[in-house]
Amino acid sequence: MATIKDIAKQAGVSIATVSRVLNYDETLSVGDDTKKRIFEAAEKLSYTKHKRKQQKEKMQK
């Protein structure tokens, strides 16, 4: 299973940048080329968000 760290290494950016891009942080000032590299790396590595966290969030709502 791919991690944010794996994506960051593949895309040549920081882990924080990957996290913020994948969470669609609108306050992040990153070029479209960088975003594209991150999303392509995530797709290539078959990245999916952690299921347990998503289920926990649903239960709290």
List key phrases describing it.
single chain, 61 residues, mainly alpha, 434 Repressor (Amino-terminal Domain), 4 helices, globular
Low-confidence blocks of residues: none
Relative strand content? under 5%
Return the domain count: 1
CATH fold topology: 434 Repressor (Amino-terminal Domain)
Terminal-residue CA separation: 28 Å
Let me know the number of strands. 0
CATH architecture: Orthogonal Bundle
Task: Classify the oligomer.
Answer: single chain
Please tally the helical runs, counting DSSP H or I stretches of 4 or more residues. Answer: 4
Q: What average pLDDT do the residues reach?
A: 87
Q: Please provide the ordered H/E string of secondary-structure elements.
A: HHHH
Largest sheet: none
CATH class bucket: Mainly Alpha
- Secondary structural class: mainly alpha
Shape: globular
As a percent range, the share of helical residues equals: 55-70%
Gist?
The protein has one domain: lambda repressor-like DNA-binding domains (434 Repressor (Amino-terminal Domain)).
Describe it for me?
- Helices cover 64% and strands 0% of the residues.
- The protein has 61 residues and is an all-alpha fold.
- It has a single domain (4-60), classed as 434 Repressor (Amino-terminal Domain), CATH 1.10.260.40.
- Helix 1 (4-11) crosses helix 2 and helix 1 (4-11) crosses helix 3.
- The longest helix is centred in the middle third of the chain and has 13 residues, at 32-44.
